[in-house]
Design brief:
The protein contains 22 helices and 8 strands. By secondary structure, it is α/β, with parallel strands linked by helices. The protein has 2 domains: 3-387, no CATH class; 433-520, 2-Layer Sandwich (Transcription Regulator spoIIAA), CATH 3.30.750.24. Strands 3-4-5-6-8-7 form a 6-stranded mixed β-sheet. Helix 21 links the parallel strand 4 (435-440) and strand 5. Helix 3 packs antiparallel against helix 12, helix 5 runs parallel beside helix 6 and helix 5 packs antiparallel against helix 17 (357-371).
Length: 523
């Protein structure tokens, strides 16, 4: 390591990334319904373990907002957080296998509309889940784990119930947090170096802590009690074991563990690959990250995080972009931010325990808004229904069911539109007088058989028909049989048929090839 370069660029940037990561690690754990320390553990593992193994110079890994809905549902379904940790470990093993199988290109097979719909759906979930924490000092509600509950209630009804328990102190801190995050990012304030150097989430946390201290001195009835502040294990009371929650290996026969693990592995891998692609584009040195190695590194990181009691991790674009913008040059910045995060937990946990949960809720409300901006919906609408409908289908399915089904449904809807478009554009028909031309503009398969039959049925008696397959790279045998069937009936209508460009014209009955042009005379 070049120490001079490290102290001039990578160490300062690692401090900035730490300041961004700290509130996000806590907030994502809160949104996931997991112990707050699990978010910090994931951040530490993402920085130190994945940072060391990854081939990326600038990306930063840690707990991701994109996995919150999966974690929420999984913990509820599996029964305990310890059993969920076993799923995280298995997910890590699956990612390592994917890396070894060279599946790094998996991210290219998901339509952009589905990816954007997935992110927007996650954003809406974040907003809905955090409203109760933002307005009321009440325990995490059981109904917030899933949208539809067994007792007939749902997320919306739980939000309405939380409005009956509004706590002024929590509301004030949440509103101030949201407004500060909006103002902090304005161009007017970003002209000043202070607002560019100090990350907005850190500034919001400090002000939230300050407001609560003022409440205690001036108006105790507004003060946030310890029950609704960040709570971390105490090293002085319990020793190092207080920092770790270990998986429940006795539950290995539970099939839900493996279903959850597959879901986590797929979504975490996808989010990582998308973030890596974005990070590489921001790299001024134009370095390229080996994707298969990245999947292996993420897999090892998730296995370690699950073993030590942390949330699942991915490469995350918010921290990665902060790393780039702060001037990082190598992955020494990523590793150092994990070390600083670990030292803060060990040395100053009582300082972190001054942070109100309503403050973190404010940060997550803005995070959710950024993922589900109205402009994202408008932009997809302007691209046409072939993009907008898969997008909306994914958003609604993610919101009302789960993320995996949402992505699956979005892909199905996208495929339907691909097939419809293929039906419309693969075969064109042009006519002039008694002359008719049917041209295959692209590969034609059995999927186009119905459309071809319909067009052939419309050819009138005594017509001169040319079927031009020259532009098609491939013509399915079903299409050739359809042409064969038509030539039999064409004789009865006195239709002259000429077929051009078939790669294997001999497959058409009674056809001989002259310079790859096929002429069938049926009259």
């Amino acid at each position: 390591m070049n120490l001079r370069s490290y102290w001039s660029s990578d160490f300062p940037s690692s401090v900035v990334v730490f300041l961004v990561a700290l509130p996000l690690c806590l907030g994502i754990a809160l949104a996931s319904g997991a112990p707050l320390f699990s978010g910090l553990m994931a951040g530490i593992v993402g920085g130190i373990v994945i940072g060391s193994l990854s081939g990326s110079s600038l990306s930063v890994s840690g707990p991701a907002a994109g996995l919150t809905s999966i974690v929420l549902v999984a913990i509820n379904d599996l029964g305990t957080f310890e059993i969920f940790l076993l799923s995280v470990m298995v997910a890590g093993a699956i990612q390592v296998v994917l890396g070894l199988l060279r599946a790094g290109s998996i991210g290219h097979f998901f339509p952009a509309a589905v990816i954007k719909g997935m992110l927007a759906g996650i954003g809406l979930i974040l907003i809905l889940k955090q409203i109760p924490h933002a307005v009321a000092l009440m325990p995490i509600m059981k109904g917030m784990k899933v949208f539809f509950q067994q007792d007939g209630r749902n997320t919306f009804s739980e939000i309405l119930e939380s409005l009956n328990h509004i706590t002024p102190g929590a509301v004030i801190i949440s509103i101030v947090s949201v407004l500060l995050l909006i103002v902090w990012s304005s161009n007017k304030l970003l002209r000043y170096k202070f607002f560019r150097v100090v990350p907005a989430p850190l500034g919001v946390v400090l002000i939230g802590v300050g407001l609560n201290l003022i409440f205690k001195l001036v108006s105790p009835q507004l003060a946030i009690t310890a029950q609704h502040l960040v709570s971390l294990p105490s090293y002085s009371e319990s020793g190092m074991s207080a920092f770790f929650t270990f998986p429940d290996f006795s539950a290995w026969q539970n099939p839900k563990i493996y279903t959850t693990a597959i879901t986590l592995a797929i979504v975490a891998s996808l989010e990582t690959l998308l973030s890596i692609e974005a990070s590489d584009k921001m790299d001024s040195a134009h370095r390229s990250t080996p994707l298969n190695r990245e999947l292996c590194a993420q897999g090892v990181g998730n296995a370690v995080s699950g073993l030590l009691g942390g949330l699942p991790v991915t490469s995350v674009i918010v921290r990665s972009s902060a790393n780039v913008n702060a001037g990082a040059r190598s992955k020494a910045s990523t590793i150092s931010h994990g070390v600083i995060l670990m030292l803060s937990v060990v040395l100053v946990p009582h300082v972190l325990e001054l942070i109100p949960l309503s403050c973190l809720a404010g940060i997550l409300l803005i995070t959710g808004y950024k993922l589900a901006k109205p402009s994202a919906f408008v932009g997809m609408f302007k691209k046409g229904y072939t993009q907008f409908l898969p997008f909306v289908a994914t958003v609604l399915a993610v919101l009302f069911t789960n993320l995996l089904f949402g992505v699956f449904l979005g892909i199905v809807v996208a495929l339907i539109f691909i097939l419809i478009t293929n039906f419309k554009k693969a075969i064109i028909v042009v006519s002039e007088g008694e002359w008719y031309l049917i041209r295959f503009t692209k590969d034609v398969t059995f999927l186009n058989k119905a459309a071809l039959r319909q067009e052939l049925a419309g050819i009138p008696e005594d017509a001169q028909l040319v079927i031009d397959a020259t532009p098609a790279g491939f013509v399915d045998n079903d299409i050739i049989e359809t042409i064969n069937d038509f030539t039999e009936t064409a004789r009865l209508k006195n239709i002259s048929v000429t077929v051009k460009g078939l790669k294997h014209p001999g497959h058409v009955k009674g056809v001989s090839s002259i310079e790859n042009n096929v002429s069938i005379t049926t009259n």
